[in-house]
Design brief:
single chain; about 290 residues; alpha+beta; Nucleoside Triphosphate Pyrophosphohydrolase; 7-stranded mixed β-sheet; 4-stranded antiparallel β-sheet; 13 strands; about 30% helix; about 30% strand; NUDIX_hydrolase_dom; Nudix hydrolase domain-containing protein; NUDIX_hydrolase-like_dom_sf
Length: about 290
């Protein structure tokens, strides 16, 4: 929309020209000045305003500024797990792929294909100058799995942090964690939506209160624990939160409610989560992420 000063001056100039279709020479200076002022106002004022980049979550607390999941460079795509296998096998250490889904706590190549297919992870080939992991080399590029993660530090009434100690996987193996509740984010998903989804799917609760001012983002780069030999970049979006209805003390477990696709596809999935409350006076839980 054109700014108000431009509309006023443009209208004023048009009215004058309509009233005096043949201006006398003394009036030409007045017309020229009015037209110039209109043009200056038009080009000095923006024609539109940009929407804010950040998203604001309004809930039981005040507004909390957060980000959506970042959109990395376009991911490599594969039509089937078999095509992914053929492409990735020569680009990994010789014994890496054989351990996926075979070593306790790891996931299968089928799991990786599902992550890429549904947008939970991106598989990239980056020039060495853009990558710090220095692994999975393919000529002049580096193979990298990129994941946006929502990490939720849930505290009880005495300030202890809820930590997932381990998971029971569908193949009967145990996957050790020792980290706060976390969830892979979908492309463009707001942090608060991913947090609510994580609480609902892993803890079975529908209400979460995000503490204002607690949002933090940082990036980790390390070899993936789920896919040994595959370098990974984790973009961590962390918040503090409160969830009602959880046990206040001791250890407990919950059933996973969000991995139906993995189950239907006969990929490895989480059956149960095991939790405990941990004092974090020394910041050890924060360091567990990196």
């Amino acid at each position: 929309m054109r700014p108000l000063p431009s509309l006023v001056t443009a209208g004023f100039t048009a009215a004058l020209l309509s009233a005096f279709p043949f201006p006398s020479p003394p009036n030409l200076l007045f017309f020229a000045a009015a037209a110039s002022f209109s043009v200056v106002c038009l080009f000095r004022s923006p024609l539109s305003t940009s929407a804010p980049v950040s998203r604001r979550h309004r809930g039981p607390y005040h507004a909390v500024t957060m980000r959506r999941a970042d959109s990395p460079p376009p991911s490599l795509s594969f039509s089937s797990p078999e095509s992914l296998n053929d492409w990735i096998r020569p680009r990994l250490p010789s014994d890496a792929l054989a351990s996926w889904g075979a070593s306790p706590g790891t996931k299968s190549l089928h799991n990786l294909w599902l992550e890429i297919f549904h947008g939970e992870a991106s598989l990239l080939l980056l020039p060495h100058s853009q990558d710090e992991t220095r692994g999975g080399e393919d000529g002049s590029s580096t193979l990298l799995r990129v994941v946006n993660v929502a990490a939720v530090r849930i505290r009880n009434s005495r300030g202890a942090v809820l930590v997932e100690s381990h998971q029971l996987l569908s193949d009967g193996t145990i996957r050790h964690r020792y980290r706060p509740l976390s969830e892979k984010m979908m492309p463009g998903e707001p942090v608060e939506a991913a947090v609510a989804r994580a609480v609902r799917e892993e803890l079975g609760k529908d209400v979460v209160k995000i503490v204002p001012g607690s949002y933090n983002m940082r990036v980790e780069e390390r070899t993936s624990a789920s896919y040994p030999g595959l370098p990974a970049r984790y973009v961590l979006h962390s918040v503090d939160a409160e969830v009602d209805g959880l046990p206040e003390e001791g250890e407990f477990s919950t059933e996973e409610n969000g991995e139906g696709i993995e189950a239907m596809e006969k990929a490895i999935f989480v059956r149960r989560h095991f939790w405990k409350w941990v004092n974090d006076d020394d910041g050890s839980i924060e360091r567990a992420w990196g």
